[in-house]
Amino acid sequence: MQHFLSLFDISPDDLQLILRTAGVVKQKLAAGDRPNILKNQVIALLFEKPSLRTRVSFEAGMAQLGGESLFLGSDVGWGKREAPSDFTNVLGQFVDAVVCRAKQHSKVELLASFNAMPVINGLTDLCHPCQALADILTIEEVFGSYAGKHLVFVGDGNNVAQSLALICAMLKMRFTLACPDGYEMDSDWMAKVQAAYPDAEVETQHDPAAAVKTADAIYTDVWTSMGQEAEMVARRQAFKDFQLNKTLLQAAPASARVLHCLPAVRGEEITDEVIDGDQSDIVRQAGNRMHAQKGLLVWMLGRDWISKNVV
Ligand code: CP
Ligand code: NVA
Questions:
Q1: What is the largest CA-CA distance in the chain?
Q2: Which residues pair with 8 in a beta bridge?
Q3: Which domain holds residue 238?
Q4: How far apart are CA 295 and CA 206, in angstroms?
Q5: How far is residue 17's CA from residue 192's CA, in Å, rounded to a whole number?
Q6: Do 88 and 141 reside in the same domain of the chain?
Q7: How would DSSP label each residue in 243-254?
Q8: Distance of CA 61 from the midpoint of ligand 1 (Å)
Q9: What is the CATH number of the domain that holds 136?
Q10: What's the 54 CA to ligand 1 centre distance in angstroms?
Q11: In a designed cystine with 10, which of 14, 17, 182, 257 is the match (CB 3.0 to 4.6 A)?
């Protein structure tokens, strides 16, 4: 069964097909055409953490494709009311796929292990693959192509950074993380990236101004991710020289674009003038969550349509 727990679950060819499908479906929407590709299909959204973008973009996207979605909050008692196998095998009788946002990546792996329905990762502590799809779609739109582009992530080597490192490796893009000492990406994850994509141009360094010098796009995310609130004070101190502000932006080429997955802590990892500035594509990027995920949903649940409509 095809799951999407991380970008390791798909090949670079699959990835490119998902992105092309997203582009076709996005163009159709702009022309007022909302084909019912997933008519009568149902997805569940099983979320252990808050969300605006992921939840609403999946719900709206599924509706535009002619399907339905069911939001499942804490009252369904996942992991609390009954055995994981009972929960999952029952849910699989009702829905065609589940999008899951979980505190620990092992929980989405457990959900997928029963093969009761395809599982899509809607963010875990390890990675955020749906976000990375939207980010590449945005880079492709803004530059005309993602080929050969240099993406520089300034901040924490977190779930978002880890997905970006992998997606850049898959697409032969260059990826640099500029982070404080001790906040690098997970070494097991990076070893897997290097093993799967030996030619990957992925590097980590500790000088943000040097890192952005050749950036096509500069990306940042919160210093304190959901679940890390106890470390907030220490993190503010550790990341204080890694703010994406006007001075750092001036160290980059004038053509560099700015990305952020949102939600942002304005004044912390990014300033108002940068997030709202001329070089920012952040709102378009958030909008692309829906288009990218429609591409993913069609690829997972409506493959026949792709063979007839996407080249
Ligand atoms: N970027 C993102 O995943 O946003 P939400 O937490 O609002 O879903
Ligand atoms: N790194 C952030 C991303 C939120 C979309 C978090 O995990 O909270």
A1: 55
A2: none
A3: 130-286
A4: 36
A5: 23
A6: no
A7: -B-HHHHHTS-T
A8: 15
A9: 3.40.50.1370
A10: 5
A11: 14
